[in-house]
Amino acid sequence: MQWLEQNGQTGLSGTIEIFNELSTSAKTIQFQLARAVSKKKPLDLSSLEKMGQSWQTAMDMLRNLYN
């Protein structure tokens, strides 16, 4: 999406921001999961709900842009 924006597509900045946040959150969960497994402790996955909501928001924004 950043490539599209850099090449003239407008209206993607909000979607790009959301997907960047999702990427960061996914990396964080990945490291938390590795730590939880190695220490045999439970992992709080409540942030997945927010990630799902953010993903849906970004997809809705894209649908509105390209529909």
Q: Tally of extended strands? A: 0
Task: Provide the β-strand percentage band.
Answer: under 5%
Report helical residue fraction: over 70%
Q: How far apart lie the N and C ends? A: 17 Å
Question: What are the salient characteristics of this protein?
Answer:
67 residues; mainly alpha; 3 helices
Short description:
The protein is mostly helical. The mean pLDDT is 96.
Description:
The chain has 67 residues and is mainly alpha-helical. 78% of the residues lie in helices and 0% in strands. It contains 3 helices and no strands. It has helices at residues 2-6, 13-39, 47-66. Helix 2 runs antiparallel to helix 3. The protein is elongated. The two termini are 17 Å apart.
SSE topology sketch:
Elements: H1 2-6, H2 13-39, H3 47-66
Helix pairs in contact: 2-3
